[in-house]
Amino acid sequence: VKSFVDHNALLADPAVDAVVIASPPDTHAAITIDAANAGKHVFTEKPVDMTFEKIDAAIAAVERAGIKLQVGFNRRFDANFKAVHDAMVSGKVGQPLICHITSRDPIPPSLSNTRAVGGLFLDMTIHDFDMACYLTQSDVESVYAIAATMLEGCGEPDTAIVTLRMANGALVTIDNSHTTFGYDQRAELFGTLGMIATSNEKPHSALLTDASGSHAVLPWHFFIERYAESYRRELEAFVECIHRDLEPPVTTTDGRRAVAIAFAAQRSYDESRPVHLIEVAGQAT
Amino acid sequence: VKSFVDHNALLADPAVDAVVIASPPDTHAAITIDAANAGKHVFTEKPVDMTFEKIDAAIAAVERAGIKLQVGFNRRFDANFKAVHDAMVSGKVGQPLICHITSRDPIPPSLSNTRAVGGLFLDMTIHDFDMACYLTQSDVESVYAIAATMLEGCGEPDTAIVTLRMANGALVTIDNSHTTFGYDQRAELFGTLGMIATSNEKPHSALLTDASGSHAVLPWHFFIERYAESYRRELEAFVECIHRDLEPPVTTTDGRRAVAIAFAAQRSYDESRPVHLIEVAGQAT
Amino acid sequence: VKSFVDHNALLADPAVDAVVIASPPDTHAAITIDAANAGKHVFTEKPVDMTFEKIDAAIAAVERAGIKLQVGFNRRFDANFKAVHDAMVSGKVGQPLICHITSRDPIPPSLSNTRAVGGLFLDMTIHDFDMACYLTQSDVESVYAIAATMLEGCGEPDTAIVTLRMANGALVTIDNSHTTFGYDQRAELFGTLGMIATSNEKPHSALLTDASGSHAVLPWHFFIERYAESYRRELEAFVECIHRDLEPPVTTTDGRRAVAIAFAAQRSYDESRPVHLIEVAGQAT
Amino acid sequence: VKSFVDHNALLADPAVDAVVIASPPDTHAAITIDAANAGKHVFTEKPVDMTFEKIDAAIAAVERAGIKLQVGFNRRFDANFKAVHDAMVSGKVGQPLICHITSRDPIPPSLSNTRAVGGLFLDMTIHDFDMACYLTQSDVESVYAIAATMLEGCGEPDTAIVTLRMANGALVTIDNSHTTFGYDQRAELFGTLGMIATSNEKPHSALLTDASGSHAVLPWHFFIERYAESYRRELEAFVECIHRDLEPPVTTTDGRRAVAIAFAAQRSYDESRPVHLIEVAGQAT
Fold first, then answer.
1. Separation CA D245–CA C55 (nearest Å)
2. Which of chain A's residues have a Cβ under 8 Å away from the Cβ of B148?
3. How far apart are alpha carbons D140 and D169 in whole angstroms?
4. Listed residue (C129, C171, C134, C196) closest to D150, CA to CA
5. Engineered SS bond to B129: which of A5, B261, C248, D239, CB 3.0-4.6 Å?
6. Using CA atoms, how far apart are residues A18 and A31, in angstroms rounded to an integer?
7. What is the 8-class DSSP label of residue A108?
8. Strand residues in A137-206 grouped as ranges (E)
């Protein structure tokens, strides 16, 4: 194991074929461009970056270099969400009509931190925006966001419901907040033929029944425990797409789209009105 | 058992203390006024009526006559929704932040019928509007509705998501549609201390596991089966509020409020924008 | 509604077609015989009586009179157990291999009472013996019972496991005890093709998740609540079998068989050895 | 990584501190003795061996050498069974009264194989015998086994119910068979204060509801998937007990006890009567 202070030193190492970028969000594009120019494949954490300008520059560099770029939407590799996706793709739920995505974490937001990472929508909900597209197999047409601040002294919203109208007609809700009971990560997809819904994963299934009721253990506390397997799988998929020269399972298009939805949600919240994705996505093209 | 062709003949019977109105929606207010004038207590099915003018005339007659009027929001008497309400009132979920209400029925809408009864929001969602207020213990501040038409040849929307911002800060989603799998009636309330969620009631709990998976029976097919007990309980409560001279558990205020939210949802859908309840409720006061 | 101090006065009433016997167990046969002689159909609570001699006399009287006799094994009419039975009969579980019946009630036994009613096996487990035959669709070949006394000062066993080898090869366990958490009434049937299992019925499905875990309400407290519907259905079935001149859904053969299994379980417990049903059933034929 | 054809060559390697024995059952004791004589700590798969004579010789060698010996009862390290055990030890279920252990696997037994490994009780049920002691925190007093042969052409029993009376008064059932639906591994412990029960672990939680019912995925197929984590944890515990000089979490006493219960179950089945453990355990002391 070698370590480097400067990512360019790492990129200069001919033994390196591919890199994982887990730096602050507003450095992702710059490092991606450096990696692309060095001919290294890139796995970057979400978001691709924080402006369309930087994202599009990164995408251009990736295409020019002919490298693979995979974005870290790890939840696609969670067995629960994948099962919903697979039921959708196989036709078991029919045409998708309604999708509910619940995504709450156990950590109250720190004000400075959420601002630094782009606010609730770009930092946290972005995973759910990708999930909405992944589960309904559609792009987003319009976005409406309402939010509230539940924590004293935090000026940023920390609780939100985002409603999406998808291009294929499906209607989606995403809710985000912070819990006292661990990581709350669920999805329900309802269509013309049926519905598929996931439950939270728990450390064990034992149910205790005593004179006061039946009691089950809390869900896994946070992403490290809940999504451990998905992190392993997304990297395996990244390695496989390099080895077999396949398209990455999460593309730059997916990465840019999720940022666009986050921008639309932010504008919807700021202006208290539904926002068509084209209003926002049009900014950068 | 006696039967009457004209409700006024029934109202003239001195042996009658109270009446149940289950006639078409746009006749509720007129019959309520006749009953009030005859000094009979009234239990009316929802909605109280289809315009504020008629509703307010009915309320005035009820107050003038000093009779009891209870509106048929039977779901408040369902043990599942009552348990959510009770957890909220007792403080177990803390301050309410997010509430999801799912209300789907197994019967595809007939176009003529839904128009005659005021459309999806006034006919079907009105139960959920009352439920939103009942579960979060708050009035509504603003409404945003998106909807889609899933059935061929039906011009009216039959699938909708309505988002409510409650006066106490809670954010609510309601979704309505039509299922292939029976009556889908659930609620989830999430707050600063915890979450409480219901599941669908089923005819039995037997779970069959065979080589293809684990299989459970469908939920109760429709309202007659699912809400049988709640219909019994709401009428018991009506009788009790007469006998003991109590305020009815569902008041004219509740009945009028739910209609106002339905009007706001309809306007939001028609105008593709969030609507403040005051825009609509102001019409009639 | 008329009431009688003496059952013979009731039986003399020509307006009476059928009677329900819910008197102490050791009076069932005598009253059944009186009713049969009066030409009245009989629904009797379990057990048919407490000795083979009296039971066989009652059966003979019933056959002589050509009346219907139905025994109160109400659990066959519970939707949960019926679903297990129906899956068995329809072939969904294949050949039955293993069946677990759990039957625990919330009331600690009173010593005098359990002795008066024939002890744990004849009073309480008798329902489970009928259930074992009903669910596996077989007679019993041999019985092994172990038991324990959990309550101070009660000389009678109050906690037991009875193991049955059925004539068709299925192996059954029945467990009885007394709970702190209400009525615990479940069955699981496992066969060559699959398994079907029931859960306890509860007053509502609401699940509260807070910082300490997820919490569900207790099951229904006791038989009045849990089996209310089954009591209604068994009497409907009794009336129907009279009206349509059908064989009762629970016959005298079923009633006598369950008593025989109880006797075998008692002997197994007393002698600490497996007992073949023929050892006991042979007593009376 | 080095490999050896002869275990004695491995034992001669001074770099080796400890060994894992996963050879055929009737070689465990001999290899354990060789390892003990070489001063290597031993982790051996169950059973310790197939006769008391060999087991006791191995135990003597282990004690003489002062090495650690841990037996591979991995299920103690499964989070589900551990939660039941922990609830028992912490007093949450009160005094244990009834315990049901279900242990069914998806692989039909091959006749030659089950005979070679000692039959159903010594090969398969032995895990459940250890679990019965672990969950009720007690030794066994007496054993009663009934069994059946469900598979054509297989002379050995493949479906069994073993009933145990524990020294502390708890009554236990164990059932074994072979399923069409994967690995069925559950436990329920009922006591004077409450009950704790586990469910099968599944690859994901997604529940599909369509017009035919609600459908969940099968449990993990077999031990490799279901118990993967427990295998990791038992070896971690083994390494830790060496490093910190602790008693192994599964001792030679545990290993010998489970074999004794298996012998008693076999005798009970062969002789169709309950067998006191002392009848069997007395053989070898």
1. 68
2. 97, 169, 171
3. 9
4. C171
5. B261
6. 12
7. P
8. 140-148, 159-166, 171-178, 184-191, 194-197
pLDDT digits (tens, 9 = 90+) for B207-265: 999 999 999 999 999 999 999 999 999 999 999 999 999 999 999 999 999 999 999 99
pLDDT bracket for residue C154 (50, 70, 90): low
Chain A residues in contact with C197 (beta carbon < 8 A): none
Asked if D274's CB is within 8 angstroms of C159's CB, the reply is: no
For residues A122 and A50, the answer to whether their CB atoms sit within 8 Å is yes
Residues sharing a CB contact under 8 Å with residue B111, sequence separation 6 or more, in sequence order: B153, B154, B155, B156
Rounded to whole angstroms, the Cα distance separating C60 from A281 reads 88
Residue D186: band (very low, low, confident or very high) from pLDDT cuts 50, 70, 90 = very high
State the Cα–Cα distance between residues B95 and A225, nearest whole angstrom. Answer: 28
Which D residues 202-261 touch A at CB under 8 Å?
203-211, 217
Contact B216 D217 (CB under 8 A): no
Q: Which of B93, B201, B217 sits opposite C205 (nearest CB)?
A: B201
Structure tokens at A20: 């994982």
CA distance D194 to chain C (A): 6
Compute CA distances B202 → B175, B185, B233, C135, C199, whole Å.
21, 11, 20, 21, 12
Using one digit for the tens of pLDDT, what is the confidence trace for B11-69? Answer: 999 999 999 999 999 999 999 999 999 999 999 999 999 999 999 999 999 999 999 99
Residue C171: which of D159, D179, D195 has the nearest Cβ?
Answer: D159
Is the ipTM higher than 0.85? The answer is yes
**d(Cα D277, Cα D262) in Å, to the nearest integer?**
10
Q: Does B180 touch chain D (CB under 8 A)?
A: yes
How far apart (Å, rounded) are the C-alpha atoms in residues C148 and C155?
A: 10
Q: How far apart are CA D280 and CA C106, in angstroms?
A: 39
**Contact indicator for B268, B144 with CB cutoff of 8 Å:** yes
| D92: confidence class by pLDDT, cuts 50, 70, 90 | very high
Q: How far, in Å, CA of C42 to CA of C19, rounded?
A: 5
Pair of tokens at residue C13? 């009433």
Look up residue B64 and give its DSSP letter.
H
Residue of chain B with shortest Cα separation from D219: B213
Residue indicated by tokens 């630094």: A116
Q: Are B25 and B118 in contact (CB under 8 A)?
A: yes
First to last CA, chain B: 42
Mean pLDDT of A185-204: 98
Give dist(CA A221, CA B263) in Å, integer. 42
The residue assigned the tokens 């069409």 is: D180
Nearest to D98 among C97, C144, C177 (CB): C177
Nearest C-alpha neighbor of D122 from the set D134, D133, D112, D130: D130
**Chain B CB contacts of A175 below 8 Å:** 98, 100, 171, 173, 190
Structure tokens at A83: 């099962």
Asked if residue C123 lies in contact with residue C96, where contact means CB atoms within 8 angstroms, the answer is: no
C181 touches chain A (CB under 8 A): yes
Q: How far, in Å, CA of B124 to CA of B114, rounded?
A: 9
Residue D51 and residue D263: Cα distance in Å, rounded?
A: 9
Q: Is C98 in contact with D175 (Cβ distance < 8 A)?
A: yes
Burial class (CB in 10 A: 0-12, 13-18, 19+), B230: buried
Q: Where are the beta strands (DSSP E) in chain A?
A: 18-21, 41-44, 69-71, 96-105, 140-148, 159-166, 171-178, 184-191, 194-197, 207-210, 213-216, 275-276
Cα separation, D258 vs C171, whole angstroms: 23
What's the CA angle centered on A175, arms B217 and A146, to 5 degrees? Answer: 135
- By the 8 A CB rule, do B96 and B191 touch? yes
